[in-house]
Amino acid sequence: GSVVASYPYDDSPTHKPTGVYSKSADDEVFRYLAKAYASNHPIMRTGTPNCPGEEGETFQDGITNGAQWYDVEGGMQDYNYVWANCFEITLELTCCKYPPTSQLQQEWENNRESLLAFIEKV
């Protein structure tokens, strides 16, 4: 896991594992939506999630193009965009994929304003 808003494309023509910005025709819209979420999240907006084992990982403004982060061939986000015209972003909300129950209230607090801002933009 991580704490970042990722947007299409997740796949790149070269399928290089990382570092290829794979721009969609609607790149500006996706960046706008991703920033709307990230800028309201207390950790995501810093761009430094500090996840164990990935302490050096950073994301400018708390967002990333999927393929630039890591290439995913055949992902649902890209499929839905290409074949159904769905504008989806992927939200990585915590370093831990399955946070303990004791942390769920804090996760809600971290994401509440972001979710409301995102819904307003949509």
TrEMBL record:
Instruction: Spell out the InterPro entries in the cross-references.
Output: Peptidase_M14, Peptidase_M14_domain
Key word tRNA-binding present: no
- Keyword set for this entry? Carboxypeptidase, Hydrolase, Protease
Q: Which GO terms describe its molecular function?
A: metallocarboxypeptidase activity; zinc ion binding
SUPFAM superfamilies membership: Zn-dependent exopeptidases
Q: Where is the Peptidase M14 domain?
A: 1-122
Gene Ontology terms: biological process:
peptide metabolic process; protein processing
Q: Name one Pfam family in it.
A: Peptidase_M14
Q: Gene3D superfamilies given for it?
A: Zn peptidases
Q: Which GO terms describe its cellular component?
A: extracellular space
Q: Which residues form the active site?
A: E92
Family, according to the entry, reads as follows:
Belongs to the peptidase M14 family.
PANTHER family linked to this entry: CARBOXYPEPTIDASE D, B, PROTEASE M14 CARBOXYPEPTIDASE
Q: What name has this protein been given in UniProt?
A: CBPD Carboxypeptidase
